[in-house]
Amino acid sequence: MYLSRGLYVFPNGNKIRRFMIDGKHAKELSEVTFAEQLINFLKIDLDPLKRVLDRLKAQTKENTSLEELMKTFNTIGWIAGNFCVDEPVYSFLLTTVFDGRYAEINHSDELYIFKDQAVNALYHVIHAQAMFFTVADQYCRIEGTHLEKVNRIFTGRETLFKMQLEQIIAHKDVNEKMFYMTRPTLPYNRGYRFENLPDYIWYIFMQVMEYEVGLSQCDYCGHFFIPQTKKKTRYCDRVRTDDGRTCKQIGPQLIYRSKLKHSELLADYDRAINRNYRRVERYELKLENEKEGKDMTYGEYYDWLKELHGAKAAFLAGMISEEEFRGVIHGVD
User: Fold this and answer.
1) pLDDT by residue (tens digit) across 34-72?
2) 212-222 pLDDT per residue, tens
3) How far apart, in Å, are the Cα atoms of 236 and each of 221, 253, 317?
4) What's the rounded mean pLDDT across residues 172-190?
């Protein structure tokens, strides 16, 4: 095989084997399921990338010196190499995009061309998380079979399928040694190579949607999870209290009490989610990119939805008032 830099993945049932290749050496990561990889990506904090993206977009030839622009690139490089240390795939794919290439540029015009490429790369990572979180949230809210839910969220979304795959034919015995082979041997195994994070997450997402994996969302905290059984499960096992109790232990009673006292408020919560999701659909299905009226982007909806999930959990726990919760519900009206 050849050693082009990238992430090489090989499906193994509902799991994937992953290898990071830096151009010289191969390193195998722990095996994960497609669902675990998707859920992990949806929960990571991309706020540092958002802040540096805003900073980079605001820097122009007119208001920024080359030294200041280089400082921003160095910041991006540091963030890319150091965030999500518990899951090295993200840092590796981000550094694959940047990889210090700006340090080799010695002409200002080339540096600003690279700046535009960096803005585009960061935007697509942030957009991918917002879009997949939005679609996964809607999938979990829809009642019906897996096929019915998938058909509903994909209806009219021909432009959703944008990932690029580079297929790799490898030795059947998948391991680090195969990357150093100079002569192919039979039998073969099929895998894929990725150079950027959005394409990789596209691939992961499509595998999760193709097969029924039981993707669920906690009614209490809003986090995604995979139930341990095929039975419909509404609450996750994340610890939520100082004494170690989980959403599954505290959520049902808190929500039951809240429905008795605040049924209209919770109905208002559900209506707001459905109403604002339709605003996203209207905008995303347009042929032009101009926002009109109450159109919402995936990013705007995602930011509101994350705040809403947090506000709901805080309200159920008695940490914020009814009026504060209502303010978040109608925060983007």
Assistant:
1) 999 999 999 999 998 899 899 989 998 888 888 888 888
2) 888 999 999 99
3) 8, 14, 16
4) 63
Distance CA 146, CA 143 (A): 9
- CA-based nearest residue to 121, from 69, 186, 52, 177: 52
Which tokens go with 52?
Answer: 């540096």
Q: What is the DSSP letter of 102?
A: G
Give residues with Cβ within 8 angstroms of 40, minimum separation 6.
Answer: 32, 87
Asked if residues 308 and 328 have their Cβ atoms less than 8 Å apart, the reply is yes
Contacts 24+ apart (CB under 8 A), 43-52: 43/223, 43/224, 44/83, 44/84, 44/87, 44/90, 44/129, 45/83, 46/125, 46/126, 46/129, 48/79, 48/83, 49/79, 49/83, 49/122, 49/125, 49/126, 50/126, 52/76, 52/79, 52/122
Residue type for position 129: Q
**Under a CB-based contact definition with an 8 Å cutoff, are residues 120 and 130 in contact?**
no
Cα–Cα separations (whole angstroms), residue 304 to 135, 318, 333: 14, 21, 11
Structural tokens at position 269: 């919560």
Angle (CA) 315 311 153, round 5°? 125
Query: Cβ-count burial of 320 within 10 angstroms (0-12 exposed, 13-18 middle, 19+ buried)?
Result: middle
CB atoms within 10 A of CB 192: 20
Q: What are the pLDDT digits (tens) for 101-119?
A: 655 666 777 778 888 888 9
Longest dimension (CA), the chain: 71
Burial of 178 (0-12, 13-18, 19+ CB in 10 A): buried
**114 contacts: CB under 8 Å, gap ≥ 6:** 73, 101, 102, 105
Take residue 320 and report the two structure tokens written for it.
């914020």
Mapping DSSP to helix (H, G, I), strand (E, B) and coil, where does residue 192 land? strand
**Tokens encoding 148:** 């019915």
Tell me the whole-structure pTM to 2 decimals: 0.86
